[in-house]
């Protein structure tokens, strides 16, 4: 069963003179209990998309349904059945952990006790601090409290807007494990993130850039669509190396990639000739090997096309 259906959705901001086309007619579907990632850089349109799907923003074109309800006509029904964790911490900083939880439970006509089994795994980690004001929690704790509040009314669909941005590596890992457990309870989860490495933790993803979906599918299918050979290259002067790789004849595309640069090679390239060229350019400590492309390589390729 489809949990979310998005059909040619459009969002524009501004006036006729200076218009920003934040979402440019995107379409996708999410199955029930699927963990679906929207992966894209800042400004891609992820927040605008989530705000339309959670009925906080009206679309300028297209339509969408969430758990069978139309995002415009049935907005009230949607508000009762979705959970939304916005990108910016938006709980009451002056209320304690417990007061925030009770507040959200009350507005949805429920109680912490009623849905404790759903939030238990997450809430036990912040329960020792239940008398602490939300504003005084660490980043990871704030994130857990936000998720607990978004879950308190047992939503069928959960929207998480960049939940791991600015969160330390350990909390990020724990967070994704929590999402897997929620999915097992039948909750559909849409999560946006600028981190490409989080794509592999989703069942399916959509790569978003400039208000458009460049590609969608399982992380494996997206990577498999990348057919070229990628060389990982490093040397003593990485900045100069990037410029030299950009102008080298056998290289289609090159970009920084962690401690290496990635070079997408043209067919029939000659690795020895490239090594020789780098030697002639007086590079030292040159390291070069063929590497398995990842989502980020595919994203770069799609963006440039
Ligand atoms: N209220 C607004 N008025 C004008 N432009 C806006 C408004 N909100 C968003 N935008 C613009 O729309 C585009 C998409 O923004 P959006 O916040 O949806 O993207 P995002 O992928 O969530 O990125 P971020 O992580 O930076 O929020 C950006 O160019 C942004 O500047």
UniProtKB/TrEMBL annotation:
One of its GO terms (molecular function) is ATP binding. InterPro entries: AAA+_ATPase, ABC_transporter-like_ATP-bd, ABC_transporter-like_CS, ABC_transporter_ATP-binding, P-loop_NTPase. Residues 4-235 form the ABC transporter domain. It comes from the Bacteria. SMART domains: AAA. Keywords: ATP-binding, Nodulation, Nucleotide-binding, Transport. Coiled coil: none annotated. Belongs to the ABC transporter superfamily. This is ABC transporter ATP-binding protein.
